[in-house]
Design goal:
Elements: E1 12-15, H1 28-38, E2 43-46, E3 51-53, E4 65-74, E5 78-79, E6 84-85, E7 91-93, E8 97-100, E9 106-109, H2 117-130, E10 136-137, H3 140-145, E11 162-165, H4 168-178, E12 180-185, E13 195-198, H5 204-211, E14 219-223, E15 232-238, E16 241-249, E17 264-266, H6 272-287, E18 292-298, E19 301-306, H7 313-320, H8 324-334
């Protein structure tokens, strides 16, 4: 890529993992970058480590937060019968420039979990830009506040029976009450660390000690829903409205349906009950600046609210023929 690029106010910055580690056939961030490009705008990329803040004399211009970012140009990536056709190379990077966050019409925080110290500090730096009028998706304060497991408890009446605790005795009692449970680490992603247990599982106490790090870390226990064998729906909400849905079925011998652990995506429709769940969540999501969200619903029960880097766009676009990324960017620009 050649030539200097003048600030436009409509450029979009994606704060994400290094672009060479993104999977263009799977990653929703790449789909969104493509949609930005199709809208005639410029996408830029950086990592959280490329964010900085400055005070005088470096910030004599009045800018507080900066990004060392690179413009990116994407090659066309087209759907096929069983995936996506990805040319090589699929992206081209321009020269890095140190730009104030105010340069960008929108900053997308799309770094994958874990939500560790580096992630949290990045949200604070992005918040400096937000205070100067930069739109950050999703809102940095809400990224900190909405843990993807715990935030579902705000809508506990929509969930399966659940318990969050560090105590082995409490978790064992919950398992005894419900017979079969799923144990989820609160900081996990893509199904990592999620285990199935039954009240009569040999060594249940030892398992609970392990997942709680000897009662030092809380975990979420949920009553096992047999309906997960028919799939776990990922519903993508844009500004509170469900624009796409895909069903993820676990592979044989597995209860986890996450695509990262072998789940198979299939086209599906939203049920009336699922639309009601979305409608109930929408006001809170809008109020807290959660513009792009993926919720998980199993057998009509809310399971998780994913706000950090929700995925599923590629599957919706290929299986349902819905131009979800383009619709998302269109709604963003209209707002």
């Amino acid at each position: 890529m050649t030539g200097a690029m003048a600030p436009s106010g409509s450029d979009q910055l994606f704060v994400a993992d290094p672009i060479e580690r993104l999977r263009p056939a799977k990653d929703s961030s790449v789909a969104l970058m493509q949609a930005v490009q199709r809208a005639g705008l410029q996408s830029w990329v950086c990592t959280p480590a490329d964010l900085s803040a400055a005070v005088a004399p470096l910030a004599a211009s009045g800018h507080a937060a900066w990004a060392l970012a690179r413009p990116v140009r994407l090659a066309p990536i087209e759907p096929t019968a069983d995936g996506w056709r990805v040319p090589q190379p699929w992206y081209e990077l321009g020269e890095a420039r140190r730009l104030p966050l105010e340069h960008f019409g929108c900053v997308w925080m799309r770094k994958d979990p874990p939500v560790d110290e580096a992630y949290l500090y990045a949200t604070h730096l992005l918040e400096l830009g937000e205070r100067r009028g930069v739109r950050v998706i999703n809102r940095p304060a809400s990224l900190r506040a909405w843990n993807e497991k715990l935030s579902s408890l705000r809508f506990s009446h929509l969930m399966a029976p659940s318990l969050v605790s560090s105590r082995v005795e409490q978790l064992a009692g919950f398992a005894a009450e419900h017979g079969e449970v799923v144990l989820k680490p609160l900081g996990g992603r893509a199904g990592q660390g999620v285990v199935f247990a039954a009240a009569d599982t040999p060594g249940l106490g030892a398992l609970l000690e392990l997942v709680t790090a000897q009662e030092q870390l809380p975990v979420m226990a949920q009553a096992f829903l047999p309906g997960v064998r028919d799939g776990d729906k990922r519903i993508l909400l844009v500004d509170g409205e469900p624009l796409g849905v895909v069903n993820r079925k676990p592979r044989h011998g597995e209860f986890r349906s996450n695509l990262a652990v072998g789940g198979q995506a299939e086209a599906c429709e939203l049920t009336a009950a699922e639309r009601c769940i979305c409608a109930e969540l929408a006001p809170a999501l809008r109020a807290e600046g959660l513009f792009f969200v993926g919720i998980d619903v199993i057998d009509g029960r809310l399971s998780e609210i994913n706000v950090t880097s929700p995925t599923g766009v590629r599957e919706v676009e290929r299986l349902a023929g819905v131009p979800l990324a383009d619709q998302t960017i269109a709604r963003l620009l209209a707002a």
